[in-house]
Structures are given as structure tokens and as C-alpha cells.
Write a structure and sequence with these properties.
There is one protein chain. By secondary structure, the chain is mainly alpha-helical. It has helices at residues 9-31, 38-63, 67-92, 101-108, 110-120, 128-148. It folds into two domains: 10-97, no CATH class; 109-149, no CATH class. It is 77% helix and 0% strand.
Length: 149
Amino acid sequence: MLESVTINWLGFFWGLMAALSYTATMYSSNNIELDSTPLKRSLFMILGGFIIIALIFHSSVNNHFSTGVFMSWGIVLSLFGTILPPLLFTRGMPLTGKGMGLGAIIASVEIPVSIFVAFIWLKEPVNFLQWIGVILILFTVVLMNLRKN
């Protein structure tokens, strides 16, 4: 039996903003300053993200900053969450070919993988509708690849 769902419009707005910024990242990774090194391009992407986060969430970061959490998890999370993804993204996206097609398809698999890993490793609860979303994303990726062949 499906559970009742209410839409949180603020969450919906932030989801759209995340999609917009992700699309901008994919576009810039594949089209802007391709002759620059991936390290330099990643630096500017991370710097741009930092400026946006600092402008929007500065009061939250200043009030709730925990040095203990930073020292225990900060380095690992910054390496795998902030440094490596843009570096590898700016290196790999231009290699997928012109346009954002294949790169976007490959990048869309990130969401189901993140949910699956959170479910298995972190024991995060994932409800039926979320699993349907994961299946829908994977089905769409397969469908987009079938059409191109």
C-alpha cells in the first residue's frame, strides 16, 4: 500500500536549484576552457561553489561549526566529496564526446548508487517510493542508451 505524500515546496525549490547547478556543472565541464588543465578548471568550479555556499549559508556555517567533526571527517569528506569529483569530472567529461549526452547519462547513475550505498553501508531507511525512483532513473538510463544504438 502506498503512503500519503505531501509535497514540500521549499524542498522542491532546492531540488530544482540543485538540478540547475548540476546541469551548469556538466555544461561547463564539457564546454568551457577545454584547453586549461583539469586541475585549474576544477579549482574554479570548487571556488565558485564555495562562494555560492558562503553567500547562501554563511550564518548556518558560522553558528554550527564543529571543530571535532571537521578534524575527524573533514579531510576525508573534502577529498571524496569536493576535490576528487570535480577534478575527475572536468577530466572525463570532454572525453565522452561533443555535447552533454553520454556524460549526463553516466552522471545520472550517481543518484541510484548513492542511495544504494547509503542503504547498505549507512543503514539509511529507503521507502518504497524512493526505490521506485531509483528504478525509474536506471530504466531511463538504459532507455536513453538503447535509443542511441
